Amino acid sequence: ILDEAIKELSLKITFLCEVHSDFIGFQLSQVEILQESRMMIPDCQRRLEIAHADLTQLLVSIQHAEAMLLIYTACYTNLKLEMWKLIITVKNLEVF
Q: What is the SS3 assignment for 21?
């Protein structure tokens, strides 16, 4: 997408430079804008790759946390069940 935008900007600048051929300052500023735009593409790509890697790692961390939550929930449920069994056993012993 960025490459297409740069090509489109390049065509516009070429056209504008032909139309404004008498104004050299305009031509230079437009060429500088085009050069800066071309330099931004690799940096944007690098930043997107870093962001993608960060988000992927975050997703893995969230999935790990969800798995741990399921394990803790199962342990808690099991512990609660065992506690109730113990309470019932103690109550039964008190009857005798």
A: coil
